[in-house]
């Protein structure tokens, strides 16, 4: 997405912004002394009417990217009550689109670093955190007229199961050596993003949804569907089928989500068989000893979106 113009019969598209603005924010609860901490990595991109900067060395319509960076800290300071990463992205987008006449659209992406409250002897610590693994993400695209696209997501969600996975019936040709199997390891690192149905800023202004709770609920559904029940699990005939099932369950459970995109690399754990001329069987693979790998990996992604009813 970019601001579009036509200059001398040539299409011209542009946008500018500041990437990777890092901010940490502590909220201190007056009542029980508990602190709440978030760390965000914010990327801002503005579509604005500033073509004179490109064409005529006239910067009078430019919002300086340095100002964008400062705005992140100003808005973080102004948030006297704890806000979700989605609410923060929305309030930044609102500021840029309403304060500057030149700005037609603001695109705000934020990645939240997974600081988790630590527990000592089973008791949640008031101000101690440790770093977790997967990251909560959001992307807000807000136009001046209030049209909104709001996406939340998770990235770096590493999942692995040691059985209940197979891969059979695929195309075999002169280059195929992969054996068919109903018993293998399944490992992936899920990146998911889902779009909420809100189409305008006014539809969430009065009562912002509980975005953090929703994020945790969607993540739980993705994880539960991947693994199945604790004792028996659930069989995965392919990463493709498991991905589709996970996305479908999210759409079925959350009516306010209109689409979901999932990216699930197939991270391979290779069977270890060792032999030598003298000793043809040093190690025989019996679903027990693996060579973990990072690359190459299978790359599997899909998106599912509800078909809009024309009522
Ligand atoms: O679940 C899988 N999907 C594939 O497309 C694929 N390709 C492959 O070699 N192994 C697998 N596994």
TrEMBL record:
SUPFAM superfamilies membership: Tetrahydrobiopterin biosynthesis enzymes-like
Keyword set includes Oxidoreductase: yes
CDD domains: Uricase
Localization, UniProt: Peroxisome
GO biological process: purine nucleobase catabolic process; urate catabolic process
Positions annotated to bind urate: 65-66, 167, 184, 239-240, 266
The keyword Transmembrane helix is annotated on this UniProt entry: no
Active site, UniProt feature: 18 (charge relay system), 65 (charge relay system), 268 (charge relay system)
Catalytically driven reaction(s): urate + O2 + H2O = 5-hydroxyisourate + H2O2
Chief localization: other
InterPro entries per record: Uricase (IPR002042)
GO molecular function terms attached to this record: urate oxidase activity
Pathway: Purine metabolism; urate degradation; (S)-allantoin from urate: step 1/3
Class of enzymatic activity (EC top level): oxidoreductase
Keyword vocabulary terms for this entry: Oxidoreductase, Peroxisome, Purine metabolism
Binding site for 5-hydroxyisourate: 65-66, 167, 184, 239-240, 266
Enzyme Commission no: 1.7.3.3
Residues where O2 binds: 65, 266
Family per record: Belongs to the uricase family.
Function according to Swiss-Prot or TrEMBL: Catalyzes the oxidation of uric acid to 5-hydroxyisourate, which is further processed to form (S)-allantoin.
Name under which the protein is recorded: Uricase
């Amino acid at each position: 997405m970019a601001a579009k113009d036509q200059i001398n019969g040539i299409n011209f598209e542009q946008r500018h912004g500041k990437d990777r603005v890092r901010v940490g924010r502590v909220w201190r609860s007056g009542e029980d002394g508990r602190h709440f901490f978030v760390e965000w990595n914010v990327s801002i991109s503005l579509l604005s009417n500033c073509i004179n900067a490109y064409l005529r060395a006239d910067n009078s319509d430019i919002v300086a990217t340095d100002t964008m960076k400062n705005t992140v800290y100003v808005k973080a300071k102004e948030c006297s009550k704890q806000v979700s990463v989605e609410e923060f992205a929305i309030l930044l987008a609102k500021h840029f689109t309403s304060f500057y006449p030149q700005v037609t659209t603001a695109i705000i992406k934020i990645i939240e670093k997974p600081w988790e409250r630590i527990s000592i002897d089973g008791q949640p610590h008031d101000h101690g955190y440790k770093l977790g693994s997967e990251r909560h993400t959001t992307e807000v695209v807000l136009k001046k007229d209030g049209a909104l696209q709001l996406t939340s997501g998770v990235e770096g969600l590493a999942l692995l199961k040691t059985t209940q996975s197979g891969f059979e019936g695929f195309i075999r040709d002169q280059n195929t050596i992969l054996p068919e199997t109903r018993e293998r390891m399944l490992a992936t690192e899920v990146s998911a993003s889902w779009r909420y149905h809100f189409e305008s800023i006014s539809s969430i202004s009065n009562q912002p949804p509980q975005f953090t709770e929703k994020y945790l609920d969607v993540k739980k559904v993705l994880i539960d569907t991947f693994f199945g029940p604790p004792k028996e699990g659930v069989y995965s005939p392919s990463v493709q089928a498991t991905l589709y099932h996970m996305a479908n369950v999210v759409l079925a459970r959350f009516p306010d989500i209109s689409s979901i995109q999932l990216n699930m690399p197939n991270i391979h754990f290779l069977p270890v068989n060792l032999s030598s001329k003298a000793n043809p069987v040093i190690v025989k693979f019996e679903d027990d000893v693996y060579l973990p790998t990072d690359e190459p990996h299978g790359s599997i992604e899909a998106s599912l979106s509800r078909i809009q009813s024309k009522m």
